[in-house]
């Protein structure tokens, strides 16, 4: 199955995890790296989750029949939901509710019911590279991730931050679009060729050359 790659902002946004076991803990760990506001609902919650989330974010001893209205309301508050309980029936019910309210859902035991998946991720500072093999095989994605991790050196993260700051400076100080493109394109090429961020004098030289051309 082919998936369209989308990067979305979840910092400070409500993400609901149904389930409190090892699979749920891995999803919690991943979402926390991106600043999500996580709520966990489960019959039993493992220590790995309790160690990283505040008590107010955990609803334990969840009883599906008595608390179905509560679950539905919590789902409607979320921007995305993970169904990772040990019950196929419960995961299916969560998926149906999410689909009814057009809320993104990842179902741990059913890719067919999932409207999004967790890709294998390479992170270098602010750089995130998501990988999906399209085969349903995590082993394939893991091997690809290992190859990319070797191919992307750590200094890429420094250059990415540097270029982001330079872009803001250029937008604030140069009105001509052609000049902006020249500075940023030239600076990026030089930074990657030198395998480091550029000095202030090097940036001034690029600007001078652009103004003289």
TrEMBL record:
Q: Which reaction does it catalyse?
A: precorrin-2 + NAD(+) = sirohydrochlorin + NADH + 2 H(+)
InterPro entries named among the record's database cross-references: Met8-like, NAD(P)-bd_dom_sf, SirC_C, Sirohaem_synthase_N
Top-level EC class, please?
oxidoreductase
Biological processes, Gene Ontology terms: siroheme biosynthetic process
Keywords for this protein: NAD, Oxidoreductase, Porphyrin biosynthesis
List the signal peptide residues: none
Which domain of life does this protein belong to?
Bacteria
What's a single GO MF annotation on this record? ferrochelatase activity
Question: Hey, which pathway is this one from?
Answer: Porphyrin-containing compound metabolism; siroheme biosynthesis; sirohydrochlorin from precorrin-2: step 1/1
What EC number(s) is this enzyme filed under? 1.3.1.76
Question: Which NCBIfam families does the protein's record reference?
Answer: cysG_Nterm
In Swiss-Prot or TrEMBL terms, this protein is called precorrin-2 dehydrogenase
> Which organism's genome codes for this protein?
Anaerobutyricum soehngenii
């Amino acid at each position: 199955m082919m998936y369209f790659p989308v990067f979305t902002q979840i910092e400070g946004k409500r993400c609901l995890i149904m389930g409190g076991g090892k699979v749920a803990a891995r999803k919690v760990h991943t979402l926390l790296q991106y600043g999500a506001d996580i709520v966990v609902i489960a019959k039993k919650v493992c220590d790995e989750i309790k160690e990283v989330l505040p008590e107010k974010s955990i609803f334990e001893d969840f009883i599906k029949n008595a608390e179905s209205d509560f679950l539905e309301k919590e789902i409607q508050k979320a921007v995305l939901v993970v169904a990772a309980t040990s019950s196929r029936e419960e995961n299916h019910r969560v998926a149906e509710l999410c689909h009814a309210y057009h809320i993104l859902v990842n179902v741990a035991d059913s890719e067919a019911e999932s409207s999004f998946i967790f890709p294998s991720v390479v992170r270098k500072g602010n750089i995130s590279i998501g990988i999906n093999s399209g085969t349903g095989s995590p082993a394939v994605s893991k091997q690809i991730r290992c190859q990319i991790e070797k191919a992307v050196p750590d200094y890429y993260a420094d250059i990415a931050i540097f270029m982001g700051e330079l872009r803001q400076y250029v937008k604030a100080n140069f009105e001509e679009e052609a000049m902006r493109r020249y500075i940023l394109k030239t600076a990026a090429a030089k930074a990657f060729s030198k395998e480091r961020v550029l000095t202030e004098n090097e940036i001034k030289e690029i600007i001078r050359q652009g103004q003289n051309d």
